[in-house]
Amino acid sequence: MDMDKKTQEDIIKCSRCGLCADVCPVYKAKRTENTLLRGKFLQLLGLIRGDLKWSNAIKSSIAYCLGCEKCKTQCPSGVSVLEIFEKIKHENLTWFEKILYGKFIFKIKIFILKVFYGAKHPVKSILRGKKSHVQKMSKSVIHFNGCLSKCINPGFRLPFEFFEGDFECCGIPYKSKGNLDEYRAVALRNAQKIEKTDALIVFNCATCLSTVRLHEFNNPKTKDRLVFYTDLYKEFLKNNKLTSKRPLTVTFHYPCHLKSAGISLSDVEDILKSIENVAYKKLENPDECCGFGGDFFLCHPKTASFLSIQKIDDVIKTGADIVLTACPTCLWSLKYGLKARHIKNIKAYDMAEFLYSLDFHAS
Predict the structure, then answer these.
(1) Residue 128 gets which letter from DSSP?
(2) CA angle, 82 as apex, 96 and 331 as ends, to 5°?
């Protein structure tokens, strides 16, 4: 198969040390060599050397990945795994797959997911109407509403005035499947719309923020205006307080892409610890992947279920009343795991929804 020189060099960089085994959630669940990065790269080396030919088996091995990027942080050679996989998928994309992983089919998938999610996990919001004292910020704020956010947690609100943006999908569904032509077109349109305004672009989906920060902007400083809603709450809490009407214990699942987006767990914890009448309990493994990355749970339901239930077992240990997260597929995973474990005394919510449900008052 044809493979560009840089991709070949990056694959050869891998020393097959196996350190990625300590962090790969898929390998922890399956314990097979072809689910470990080392095994995948040995197959790719076979392609480079001509010992192997591109096959469905190699394709399936590469696709058996959550895209959590934990291996990248662990790799002593600094290999960018997702970039390699995306390029190889792109080079071997068939005309049928270009259609299957294109915009039209994606919209159908989103509609089906919305219906399926609504049937399995009816949305029970904890929001209590609109706040009477929504504040204005010194800078205009525009919301980047992700595709899955619209399906799973559509009630995003802030204690600030903001406007809904007219953006495309962030592009990760195309990028992860190797349809880089569609991804680049989407990324270009998003970048152009973002650069036409000087407003802050606020995200409530970790994956969307992580992906859009990879878009190419004419002005590199544009990325400084891409913020997560926790950044705005940090400003809000300088002059205001959040209070729960009843005592609650909460914990937080730290999404993989929230870390890659540059939002630290301590940023989130500082907010949760500041809420009056709320006790925050840290998970034993807050950044352990929940198993529902992208459509992984549809393609590999057994592995996703194993990881989701493992996450819920960690949640149960905290004694929390509520488990929060900041990613729509993570939220789906948490709700699935609670249901699978028949847990009714713990609720899973999007953290933005939870924060807005609290009482606001000046400090």
Answers:
(1) -
(2) 90
Residues with Cβ < 8 Å from 155, sequence gap 6 or more?
A: 123, 125, 127, 353
Question: What tokens were used for 212?
Answer: 């859009």
Q: Is residue 175 part of a domain?
A: no
> What six digits make up the tokens of 10?
């990056």
Among 92, 110, 137, the domain boundary falls at 92
- E strand map for 254-298: 276-280
Element (H, E) at 362: strand 359-362
pTM (2 d.p.): 0.92
List of the chain residues with pLDDT < 50: none
Answer whether 305's CB lies under 8 Å from 247's CB: no
Q: Is residue 124 included in any domain, yes or no?
A: no
Rounded CA-CA distance 190/218 in Å is: 12
- Provide the number of structural domains found in the chain: 2
The Cβ-side half-sphere exposure at 178, using a 13 Å CA radius, reads: 20
Element housing 247 (H / E): strand 240-252
pLDDT of residue 130: 67
CATH code for the domain in which residue 293 is found: 3.40.50
The Cα–Cα gap between 235 and 289 comes to: 29
β-partners of residue 252 are: 324
For residue 324, report the phi and psi dihedrals to the nearest 5 degrees.
Answer: -110, 155
Show the domain range for 286: 240-362
User: So what's the pLDDT on residue 2?
Assistant: 67
Of 23, 6, 16, give the one whose Cα is nearest residue 72: 23
